[in-house]
Design a protein that fits this description.
87% helix
């Protein structure tokens, strides 16, 4: 399969992720306008509770597959490991729901949201295969289909039933349909089944390679959601709904950054593997600057038309949180610029350091959330987001630079020794 140019891949992923981001944001808008802040809170609480579990068992296999330049493992191995880890995740999710004393509709919503995210995890693995072949057009088309279908189904079901439980059920089934009808057939056309690739030793190596990334993503999820947990305990589900709705605008913006990062990851991996460190650095810094400018534009727009946006996309009740919205966009700017260092670290295949970094982020978030949020509420949660995002991106940037300096030094010594 012929790869597309970097420019075309970026274009496809920008369009696909933009449409997907808008559709997922549309779900929050539908719940806010046709439902209530409590309904938004219930849905986003489901995402917050399930995310750490889903992400640790996701193992970030998409990123590992996409940057597997030397083809160390077959797609069948990735898929088999994904199936085993997803089953374990579902069991753990059930245990967490029981231990967390979630009952009734809340428990079912959390379980169904988790199921939908597990299906998405399998879809993401297929995206890793398309990404590895630099065919972002295939991912973009899938994102458009998945985004529109989930938004349409939730809007229809909320309108007809006013039931979050029924709407989330339709949401999960729509993603399962996309996986079975679209992604699996495309993957079968791109890979050759090799029964000999299934052996316990290679699967063990793949697990040990990817598990640190799963821990990292779990930690990142915890660090993102800890403020929500604290808000829920202090102020209830409705407050979580307000905060999550505001933060989702920032998160939607980050989907565009992720689209670009996923597109350039194979190129970064190739540059680093081939010891083209100058090209690696230039490409990385180019997109870090792009992320900062992108976020700065978001801050300006939030200051100018933020209140009108909140009124239009949600309801008049959200205008009172405009200050929180501005603070969250500042955190978003740091996130947009610094995210590329995370993609660079994965492209360098430096996995073992990432759990250490993520532990720093989680610990700092827990401490700051406990100290600040009880006194300042949602404003305090936004301040925590700014500080912890700054800590995250600074530690990532320093780590990438240290590894890059070490790699350059080792390369120079190798050249000197060969001469």
């Amino acid at each position: 399969m012929v790869p597309l140019s970097l420019k075309r891949n970026v274009s496809f992923m920008l369009i696909g992720n933009l449409i997907y981001a808008l559709s997922q944001w549309g779900i929050i808008m539908v719940l806010a306008k046709l439902g209530s802040p409590k309904m938004v809170g219930g849905f986003t609480l489901g995402l917050a509770v399930t995310a750490p579990i889903i992400l640790i068992f996701d193992l970030q296999l998409r990123s590992v597959l996409a940057t597997d330049i030397k083809n160390e493992y077959s797609f069948q191995q990735y898929l088999f490991l994904k199936g085993v880890s997803s089953f374990i995740a579902l069991v753990v999710l059930g245990i967490v729901i029981v231990i967390g004393d979630y009952k009734g509709q809340v428990a079912f919503v959390i379980f169904l949201v988790g199921t939908a995210k597990l299906v998405e995890s399998v879809i993401e693995l297929h995206y890793g295969l398309f990404q590895k072949h630099e065919r972002m057009d295939m991912i973009a088309k899938s994102l458009v289909i998945r985004g529109f279908s989930s938004l349409f189904i939730i809007a229809i079901l909320i309108t007809l039933t006013k039931s979050l439980l029924i709407a989330v059920t339709g949401f999960a089934l729509s993603w399962l349909f996309v996986l079975v009808m679209f992604e699996s057939p495309k993957a079968k056309q791109m890979v050759v089944t090799d029964a000999s690739s299934f052996n316990i030793h290679s699967l063990k190596r793949l697990f040990l390679t990817s598990f640190p990334l799963g821990v990292v993503m779990m930690m990142i999820s915890l660090y993102s959601n800890i403020p929500r947990y604290v808000i829920e305990r202090i102020s209830g589900t409705e407050a979580v709904g307000y905060f999550s709705a505001l933060f989702y605008i920032v998160t939607a913006g980050n989907l565009v950054i992720n689209a670009i990062g996923q597109t350039i990851s194979p190129r970064l991996a190739s540059y680093f593997s081939n010891k083209e460190y100058t090209k690696f650095s230039k490409l990385l810094m180019k997109f870090v600057l792009l992320g900062f400018i992108y976020g700065l534009c978001g801050i300006i727009l939030t200051l100018i038309i933020g209140k009108q946006v909140l009124s239009i996309v949600y309801t008049q009740d959200y205008i009172k949180f405009h200050k929180v919205f501005v603070l969250l966009m500042i955190a978003g700017t740091l996130m947009y610029a610094g995210s590329f260092f995370g993609f660079a670290l994965t492209a360098m295949r430096k996995f073992s350091i990432q759990p250490i970094l993520s532990s720093i982020w989680v610990i700092s978030t827990i401490i700051l959330s406990i100290i600040i949020i009880p006194h300042f509420g949602l404003t305090g949660a936004a301040i925590v987001s700014i500080i912890t995002t700054a800590i995250q991106q600074l530690t990532l940037a320093i780590t990438v630079m240290v590894y890059l300096v070490q790699a350059k030094k080792h390369h120079r010594l190798s050249i000197q020794n060969s001469n």
